Amino acid sequence: MQNEYFPAEKIAAIRELLLRATHIVIVTHMSPDGDAMGSALGMWHFLNGKWKMENGKSVAVVVPNRFPAFFNWMPGVENVVIYDEQRAEADRLIEEADLLVCTDFNDPKRIGQVGNLLLQKACPKVLIDHHLFPADFADVTLSYPESPSASELVCKLIRSLSDYTDREMATCLYTGMMTDTGNFSFNSNYPEMYETVASLVRMGVDKDAVYNAVFNAHSADRMRLVGYSLYQKMRLFPERHASLIALSRKELYRFHFQPGDAEGIVNMPLQISDVYYSCFMREDKIEPHERERAGDAKSKIKISFRSQGDRPVNRFASDFFHGGGHANAAGGEFFGTLEEAVQCFLDHYPDYFLSM
Ligand code: 5GP
Ligand code: MN
Predict the structure, then answer these.
(1) Domain 220-352 part of CATH 3.10.310.30
(2) d(CA 125, CA 98)
(3) Which stretches of the chain score pLDDT less than 70?
(4) Ligand 1 mean position, distance from CA 265 (Å)
């Protein structure tokens, strides 16, 4: 891991902001995944454990909505405040904050009401992220879309600020690096990342235990939902090497759907030898803050795209599903019925997916 990774003036500015702040709130994205949880909690452990959080200073993590239960084991998770469920507490924390540290998202517009609060809040903000096209809202922005995880960036930031080591901090950061690379199976070809991993394992991370805690921790309902999706719902479009799985709310209900239960299903069709594009749609309810955008639609369809090689899917996501993302991992949403979203996919995928 190189100490010189970030521009010295940005590190100096962040150091100054952290030293000056007394009430720091760390914020991450909606439907938190392993990298959101890992980057936010890694930062929390660093600030709480080492960086002078005595003398009346405090640090908190606020997430917009509940994270999947398979992150319940993460060290420090009991301190995470969930905006949807603990609104008064979250409002108070953000109200009192004199520094906001944002991790793993590029635009407050994408994190619901917490994003609105963040934009309205007049206090210094730091953004640490790896998504393309960061919005210009923070005082210091560390945006590195070439990095496979925000957790790795947080790790490098911490290393640039201090030689602090801590097993719990390292465990959170490792979790984010592991999940955003599919256990180091994509976006994972650059050697320097393994130097970061080595430094985390040296801090005492039990990487095999983290793997088990995250990937071997599903409910029987989730396994049956996967089975159902692949056996009954997967549609293949061989001439474009594509796959589509679309699940209605009724189908999800049948499998007692919990947050995180659909995680990874979008990747599975890519295991078929000649499938290079995968789309996964899931009918969801419209949140209060989306009402206006939804018009008279009764449902929101959450859409995920994955692809392999030189076959970008982000333009399809942005042209038709108000979304975007990376070339090989993108997503968006559709306000309308699941059937309409599927029809939109069927009408347009041949224009976006290659036949080779
Ligand atoms: P996922 O399929 O895991 O929800 O999202 C994969 C990637 O697609 C995300 O990292 C993000 O870059 C992008 N993405 C997903 N949903 C949306 C969306 O609604 N809007 C935009 N702009 N990007 C999205
Ligand atoms: Mn991430």
Answers:
(1) yes
(2) 9
(3) 1-4, 51-55
(4) 15
Closest listed ligand to the CA of 312: 1
Ligand 2 centroid, distance to 296 Cα (angstroms): 32
Shortest-distance Cα residue to atom 15 of ligand 1: 331
Q: How many CB atoms lie within 10 A of CB 289?
A: 14
Backbone φ and ψ for 330, nearest 5 degrees, come out as: -140, 175
Ligand 1 atom nearest residue 107's Cα = 22
- Evaluate: CB of 306 within 6 angstroms of ligand 1: no
Q: Which residue, 95, 105, 11, 10, is CA-closest to 60?
A: 95
One of 3.40.50.150, 3.40.720.10, 3.90.1640.10, 3.40.640.10 is the CATH number of 3-214, namely: 3.90.1640.10
Q: Are 168 and 200 in contact (CB under 8 A)?
A: no
Note whether 114 and 64 are within 8 A (CB): yes
Domain residue ranges of the chain, discontinuous segments joined by +: 3-214, 220-352
pLDDT digit string (tens) for 61-75? 999 999 999 999 999
Tokens of 197: 């991993």
Regarding the beta carbon of 304 and ligand 1, being less than 6 Å apart is answered yes
Atom of ligand 1 nearest to the CA of 325: 12
**What are 200-249's pLDDT values in tens digits?**
999 999 999 999 999 999 999 999 999 999 999 999 999 999 999 999 99
Distance CA(275)–CA(147), nearest Å, equals: 26
Report d(CA 201, CA 212) in Å as an integer: 16
